Amino acid sequence: MKDATELPQSLLVLGGTSEIALATARRLIARRTRTVWLAGRPSPALENAAGNLRALGAVVHTVAFDALDPDSHETVLGKVFAEGPVDMVLLAFGILGDQAHDERDPARAVRVAQTNYTGAVSAGLVAGRALQAQGHGCLVVLSAAAAERARRADFIYGSSKAGLDAFAQGLGDALHGTGVRVMVVRPGFVRTRRTAGRPRAPLATTPEAVATAVELGLRRRAETVWVPGALRLLMSVLRHAPRAVYRRLAV
């Protein structure tokens, strides 16, 4: 993807069983992508995901990757980049956690933070350096609207995404002018298997809608993408709401 306005021919997904990531991969395969690496913990789900993408005509490889093992990231990602240029890296791993339980069990809360933030910092830096070494590419980071301001109902998850979001923006600034860019994607509530049973938030969206927004963002060379777009205005209002008011709204 030497012309960054083009869609990628090769894609590395960190978080290879993510429904949002797989919807994005399917959309990109339908447009231009021909080679995909799905990185995640070895599992039947990862292999099934690879098989489904192969059925769409892509060459798909699976890669053993653990967000909680940052010492392995340079080796794992290095092997992928050694196979040839990677036009786009999609950083899509993360866990929601369970706020009520995690508040009472700090070890569980730390796992959310280590996965969503610490693991992403490690993988993001390694991927960014590899993209810079090849002289082109895009790192797409799945953040969340929750990163804008922590809510009482999910402040552990929200704070981890806030850290990720700030990191990704800073990394994008650090890579500016190198031929590599970073695009931050901030979806609201996404209806997936992992959110099933949770109260539905306003402006809920789908993995397919996020995938569509990612494609449009790539074409427009966007730095930040909101899904749906109306969330940008809503979160701007909520971000500046007095804390006493926000506390009552954001339960």
TrEMBL record:
Query: Which Gene3D superfamilies does the entry link to?
Result: NAD(P)-binding Rossmann-like Domain
Q: What class of enzyme is it?
A: oxidoreductase
Q: Keywords assigned by UniProt?
A: Oxidoreductase
Q: Does the keyword Protein biosynthesis apply?
A: no
Q: What is its EC number?
A: 1.1.1.333
Q: Which Pfam families match?
A: adh_short
Q: Which GO terms describe its molecular function?
A: oxidoreductase activity
Superkingdom per UniProt: Bacteria
Family statement: Belongs to the short-chain dehydrogenases/reductases (SDR) family.
Query: Record's PANTHER family?
Result: 5-KETO-D-GLUCONATE 5-REDUCTASE, DECAPRENYLPHOSPHORYL-2-KETO-BETA-D-ERYTHRO-PENTOSE REDUCTASE
Protein name per the record: Decaprenylphospho-beta-D-erythro-pentofuranosid-2-ulose 2-reductase
Q: Which organism is it from?
A: Streptomyces tricolor
